[in-house]
Amino acid sequence: MRILLSILFVVLGSHGVLGEKLYTCTCIPGFLKAKLGGSVPNAFMKHGITPRFLPVPPKDKLNCAFMKANVELGNFIDPLRTVDMKYIAYPHGKSDVKYTLFLVDFDGKQGPPPNAHLIGIYVNVPNSENLLVGGDIAVPYIQPVATLESGIHRVAVLLYEQNDHIDPDDMELMKLIKTRVIQLEPMVKKYNLKPEPIAGAFYTSELNLCINKPL
């Protein structure tokens, strides 16, 4: 499936509509590494995630990377580079705390209420060098694929401290596997998480049909 998705992205990124000249725009070999300055709260507000989707932004930054790109604070990552998530880590994590990890896509197209597209949820996560392992998978991870001409997507990773153990087989969580639509604030209250995310990171992505237009 991953190979098929990659082929699809290359086709969409490499060819214009019938009658147009071919134009390659997603041939991106190598590792993409981008550093963006500024604080975590300012980045979440600048890109419109706070306050619409997230009333209070995280204060600290998560370290995240795909196999072919680092995730910073709003850096652009081509969809081709988002196939394989490598790790998510929180250097300031506590050994005596369990965490919930949300991966969400704020695509900007949702009307009120401010819903987001869910990429995955991990619960009862102990602190480690990779938060993607060791906890319970409540909603399995799916690749965050931006649909054609859907605009800029802001794909975020958010870490919350838990107050209690969370049943990964809870019915509400199981429903999310199918719907993939989430409102963060009600979810945080329902599962008795600490009200504000302690850390986060996000990147931007977009999928467009590339056309070589005449001058």
Automatic annotation (TrEMBL):
Lineage, top-rank taxon, reads: Eukaryota
Keywords attached to this entry: Signal
Signal peptide: which range, if any?
Answer: 1-19
Q: What SUPFAM superfamilies does the annotation carry? A: PEBP-like
InterPro entries noted in UniProt:
PEBP-like_sf (IPR036610), PEBP_euk (IPR035810)
This chain's protein is named Uncharacterized protein
Q: What is the lineage of its organism?
A: Eukaryota, Metazoa, Ecdysozoa, Arthropoda, Hexapoda
